[in-house]
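A common beginner's mistake is to predict each chain separately and then try to dock the pieces by hand. The better habit, illustrated here, is to supply every component at once so that their relative placement is modeled jointly.
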Amino acid sequence: MSQAREPVQIRQTDSRTAILESAERAFADQGFGGASIRAIAREAGVNQAMVHYYYQNKDQLFRSVVARRSGQVNDRRNDALDALFQDGVPGLEELMEALLRPTIEIGHDDAHGGPAYARLIVAFNNAADERSQNVAKEYYDPIARRSIDAMRRVVPALGKAEAVRSYLFAISLALSLMAKTGRAARLSDGLCDDSDTEETVANAVAFACAGIRALANKNNIQNRQSG
Amino acid sequence: MSQAREPVQIRQTDSRTAILESAERAFADQGFGGASIRAIAREAGVNQAMVHYYYQNKDQLFRSVVARRSGQVNDRRNDALDALFQDGVPGLEELMEALLRPTIEIGHDDAHGGPAYARLIVAFNNAADERSQNVAKEYYDPIARRSIDAMRRVVPALGKAEAVRSYLFAISLALSLMAKTGRAARLSDGLCDDSDTEETVANAVAFACAGIRALANKNNIQNRQSG
DNA sequence: ACCAGCCTTAATCAAACGTTTAATTAATGA
DNA sequence: TCATTAATTAAACGTTTGATTAAGGCTGGT
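With all components supplied together, the output reads:
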């Protein structure tokens, strides 16, 4: 018997991830329909047949792009949740920072293609087409459910419907911060930088926590009146 | 002299707006690149050359779709702002409702294709490509600037950067409510309906106002400490 | 040296794309 | 009635698309 070897990963690494990163940029900039496999291959510096060799078709290429990044973000979120609830129930600010920080930080990670994925994830987060919904369901629903449960443990007054809404609000808020469309800078005449990760996280957490408490109070008052 | 007549509009109305509405749905569902003029024409029940006859090319077709709806929303917003500030400075809740309600309501207007435009506007609101940015700049920046100024008059403690961020947060929040991706219903096991316009507006306003006040306080405290 | 396996290539396919054209029909004003 | 204009059509343009194929190069194990 020969000893263990893994020549496969070593050899395929270059082209495989080059395609993935090129695809990430293309999907982010032009959408699924607008991106072309030919252009993705060209920018990755590989033959266009290589895209099909590694990823079979355009649909699976898209899923592979999302799978890689969502894994990075959600691993960090899950770890943070584990740590937070280990010593009892944390505060709302801690919880929301744990949920929002990984999302915002990956979008700010210029060196590793974060902004491109940020644009991509924003685009399909609010999309209603079947492909986007299937991908969202597979890669983001599990962490979403866990986060919503966590929010209700931290703020017991929060009803389930309000918790879901709050989570989606907070996420949509964090995503709008990742997108870096340049609109904030334009509207503020350059005052909003958004490259300051810490300030961005702080703003998002502050805004989200205040909003969540408002929904929880609203829910509470309604229950008292009707009950 | 013959009496007044407008045969042109009457004759072209049918096909012209049929194309526009079909295009709205196509762009919303498949994105700019994914939507095809052929399919748009087919679903509108017209020859595909008609699309170019009325709208020259795909780019102008897209702009025409946005122009029509943004006009509807922003006229209502501008009127509401005029009315609000006529008798002095309104409260934050009134202001935010004036800004968010038109956006949310048009997304809930099932009978007039609102949901399709909602999805479309969400998609390109966070997009960074040149086309989306140009359209956003032309059709949405003016009302955005006016709204941001209004917010600062109502909440003087709000710095300019915070006001811009707050506005973008609030809008992204309202848009995520319009989108109706089905995700809220799925995550809440059907509890979140989002077809109740009044409750949706109330939730969005409550969340946004609380968040804005939080940012204003944060800004205030920082100024006191550093000043 | 040789084979077997991944990796890479150029060439090719049918289908769909946005756009243009020329010709036809329907409605109008004189 | 007749020329004029607007609306509509079918057909074709050249290009690009996603996907497939068959062939060749490279590498490591024997």
